[in-house]
């Protein structure tokens, strides 16, 4: 009894976020680590979770496989992937921000935390520690709460112990056993020859065309559109007719599924009020041009998504396209079901090839649960014709509980930039996946993947299902027949783990290892020929141009219809937003190739740049490092050279962060190594900077002006001594243009000398 009572006290002391993490992973978050777990306890916990997951239905196997014991899960259970689960700590951290306003407060804060962490090596704070087995008792108590009748399965404060899938409504949402309702109005949809869906999916490619797409380079052409700007159309097959932007769009000409023609103007009305020149069009100028490309089933890369301005506009546009595609595909299947039922014996069944090897048609990759919540709400709004005709949404309450957020969890005194607030609004958990099945007037949330039409997932959520090579339990067959892939906010995945996106692209549209009960007489020949990737449409949205994102679009998209990429060049750059008078020195380094630029930059820094800052007079030097691997390399070098430095990265604990900021502000540490991911997730103002070194140009161009404007935070009359040095190479052309503008970039790339710029604060 004493142990249970102590365990209950421990549970009450946990915050909401800690309880949620405890349920999902079987342990407390590494951020709150005190001492190490014993290996046996970890194995036992994972074993219990594995046994629980085996009790689920066979139809949900693909989704529960993630709960099995694997090397990847052990790594996931012990590493702190991102500061997303630290929002409970943000309130305390914001207090440290406020404490910096006065030197005395910072002194008291720093001395307290220094005493707390004294006696250990500073860099140990960058490595997440393991945890003691005391969580076992807390886990039992959480289980006891459920046994006592407390429903915590859909409580956002608790999270979920095992992944839930809806197996009750399987027959209601089965495509094989249902038929088209006459009143749905789309029974004759398959007869419209001008339907873009039919045109794209029914085109029969020849072997020669497939060989041509695999071997020959793409030909491209340019076009200028009123809203999107400069577009690059590319294709391997014969030159397609170049799209032209329609000035006015009639909803009836877009061949939308009938209910969407009525609901879209009402759902999109909120964005039309902000249009400068109102018209009768149900689209904003941006949506009109984007949807024109989407509806042609070409691949699209749009690198100008902005969470503050056009993010929701874009989300509504691609939700309309995805839902329109699913409704048409399902209507075709249901209509053919009726024809097969009424056909005469001996009729050729090849006329009814209308589906893929697996049911999921659309995969939507979004970064946070809040994004998935908004997508599903948009779907529901588009399916409800009017307030009287509400659609039936199964498991809606559970969905809101698990994907919604508690307003009380957000500290009221946080002060962050507007774009930060927009990106990290709501539930920012980045490990999730959910299947959605849509059948006529009903929607089924938490559908098993093989019974879903749409899968919404984060890169990490889909990665843990796909698994790694060599694992016994892994599954990616459900990705075999994906017809539309939507990757939204791709730039955020650069801050999470880009390897998860690459892993997904390597496993999509592969032949399945199992039949999964498919009727091969209904499967399209393109799927049987393993040509699915040549029909898949990829929609890629990002806030910036980046070589890694460009690589995915160029090397992993094979759509026979071609690709469209928006390629506008920045005219001014973020340097114009700097409000302090600061001299900028851009120092060019030479590298023979993209692969050698990493070593070349390191050597250039330690040989040419660092010696100029070793003198004590060059104190208060912040070194901004976008790559974590470069950060580790520099940290090790600074330790080897016994330099007076401190460091902050995304894995640094709160106490060590405050201590490092205090040491840097007081000048007790000459250098501060500072990672981009930490700045992305925290956006702290670092005070005391007098010298800035950008080891590499920032991924986000506005981070350049944000960091430079931090010098304004310490106003002690030493403006004349401020310096800013930037390292760049010819391979940084896109990042450089985003910072200084296209004209200056052209001049800087032609010249091999250092470039000096002076910003007066009025540029």
Question: What does this protein look like?
Answer:
The protein is α/β, with parallel strands linked by helices. 40% of the residues lie in helices and 12% in strands. The protein has 30 helices and 18 strands. The strands form 2 sheets. It has an 11-stranded mixed β-sheet. Helix 14 packs across helix 15 (369-383) and helix 15 runs antiparallel to helix 16. It starts with a helix and ends with a strand.
Ends apart, CA distance between termini: 70 Å
CATH architecture of one domain: 3-Layer(aba) Sandwich
What's the CATH topology name of one domain?
Rossmann fold
CA-based shape: globular
> Are there runs of 5+ residues with pLDDT below 50, and where?
30-121, 129-161, 187-192
Helix content range: 25-40%
How does the helix and strand content classify structurally?
alpha/beta
Protein name: U3 small nucleolar RNA-associated protein 25 homolog
Subcellular location: Nucleus, Nucleolus
GO molecular function, one term: U3 snoRNA binding
Pfam family, one: Utp25_C
């Amino acid at each position: 009894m004493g142990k249970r009572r102590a365990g209950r006290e421990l549970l009450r002391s946990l915050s909401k976020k800690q309880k949620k993490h405890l349920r999902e992973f079987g342990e407390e978050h590494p951020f709150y680590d005190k001492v190490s777990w014993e290996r046996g306890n970890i194995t036992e916990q994972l074993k219990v979770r594995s046994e629980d997951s085996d009790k689920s239905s066979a139809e949900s196997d693909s989704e529960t496989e993630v709960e099995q014991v694997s090397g990847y899960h052990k790594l996931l259970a012990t590493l702190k992937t991102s500061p997303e689960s630290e929002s409970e700590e943000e309130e305390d951290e914001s207090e440290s921000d406020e404490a910096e306003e006065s030197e005395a407060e910072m002194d008291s804060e720093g001395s307290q935390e220094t005493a707390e962490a004294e006696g250990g090596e500073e860099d140990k704070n960058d490595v997440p520690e393991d945890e003691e087995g005391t969580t076992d008792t807390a886990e039992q108590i959480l289980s006891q709460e459920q046994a006592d009748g407390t429903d915590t399965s859909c409580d956002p404060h608790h999270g979920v112990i095992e992944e839930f899938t809806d197996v009750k409504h399987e027959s209601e949402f089965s495509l094989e056993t249902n038929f088209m309702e006459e009143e749905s109005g789309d029974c004759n949809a398959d007869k419209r020859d001008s339907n873009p869906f039919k045109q794209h999916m029914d085109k029969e490619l020849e072997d020669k065309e497939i060989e041509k797409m695999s071997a020959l380079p793409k030909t491209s052409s340019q076009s200028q559109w009123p809203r999107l700007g400069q577009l690059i159309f590319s294709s391997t097959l014969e030159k397609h007719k170049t799209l032209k932007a329609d000035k006015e769009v009639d909803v009836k000409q877009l061949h939308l599924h009938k209910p969407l023609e009525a609901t879209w103007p009402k759902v999109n009305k909120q964005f039309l009020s902000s249009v400068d020149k109102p018209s009768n069009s149900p689209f904003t100028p941006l949506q009109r041009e984007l949807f024109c490309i989407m509806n042609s089933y070409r691949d699209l890369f749009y690198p100008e998504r902005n969470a503050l301005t056009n993010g929701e506009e874009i989300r509504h546009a691609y939700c309309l396209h995805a839902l329109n595609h699913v409704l048409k595909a399902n209507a075709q299947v249901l209509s053919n079901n009726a024809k097969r039922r009424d056909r005469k014996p001996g009729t050729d069944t090849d006329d009814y090839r209308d589906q893929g090897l697996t049911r999921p048609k659309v995969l939507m990759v979004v970064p946070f649960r809040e994004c998935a919540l908004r997508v599903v709400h948009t779907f529901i709004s588009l399916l409800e014709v009017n307030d009287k005709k509400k659609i039936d949404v199964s498991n809606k309450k559970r969905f809101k509980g698990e994907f919604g957020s508690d307003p009380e969890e957000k500290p009221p005194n946080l002060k962050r930039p507007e774009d930060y607030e927009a990106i990290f609004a709501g539930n920012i958990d980045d490990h999730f996946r959910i299947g959605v099945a849509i059948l006529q007037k009903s929607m089924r949330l938490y559908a098993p993947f093989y019974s879903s039409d749409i899968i919404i997932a984060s890169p990490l959520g889909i990665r843990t299902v796909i698994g790694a090579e060599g694992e016994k339990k892994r599954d990616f067959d459900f990705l075999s027949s994906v017809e539309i892939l939507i990757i939204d906010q791709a730039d955020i995945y650069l801050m999470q783990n880009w390897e998860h996106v690459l892993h997904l692209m390597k496993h999509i549209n592969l032949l399945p290892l199992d039949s999964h009960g498919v009727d091969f007489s209904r499967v399209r020949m393109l799927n049987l020929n393993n040509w699915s990737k040549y029909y898949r449409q990829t929609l890629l949205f990002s806030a910036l141009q980046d070589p890694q994102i460009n690589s995915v679009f160029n090397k992993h998209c094979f759509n026979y219809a071609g690709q469209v990429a928006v390629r506008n060049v920045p005219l001014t750059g973020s340097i114009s937003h700097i409000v302090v008078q600061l001299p900028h020195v851009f120092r060019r380094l030479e590298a023979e190739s993209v692969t050698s630029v990493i070593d070349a930059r390191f050597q250039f820094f330690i040989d040419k740049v660092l010696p100029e800052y070793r003198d004590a007079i060059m104190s208060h030097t912040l070194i901004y490092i976008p790559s974590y691997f470069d950060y580790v390399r520099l940290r090790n070098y600074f330790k080897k050279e016994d330099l007076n430095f401190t460091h902050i990265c995304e894995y640094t604990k709160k106490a060590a962060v405050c201590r490092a900021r205090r040491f840097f502000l007081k000048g007790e540490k000459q250098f501060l190594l500072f990672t981009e991911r930490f700045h992305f997730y925290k956006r702290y103002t670092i005070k005391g900077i007098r010298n800035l070194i950008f080891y590499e140009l920032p991924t986000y161009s506005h981070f350049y002006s944000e960091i430079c404007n931090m010098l304004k935070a310490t106003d002690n009359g030493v403006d004349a001594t401020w310096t800013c040095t930037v390292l760049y190479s010819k391979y940084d052309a896109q990042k450089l243009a985003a910072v200084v503008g296209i004209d200056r970039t052209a001049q800087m790339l032609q010249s091999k000398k250092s470039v000096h710029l002076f910003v007066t604060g009025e540029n």
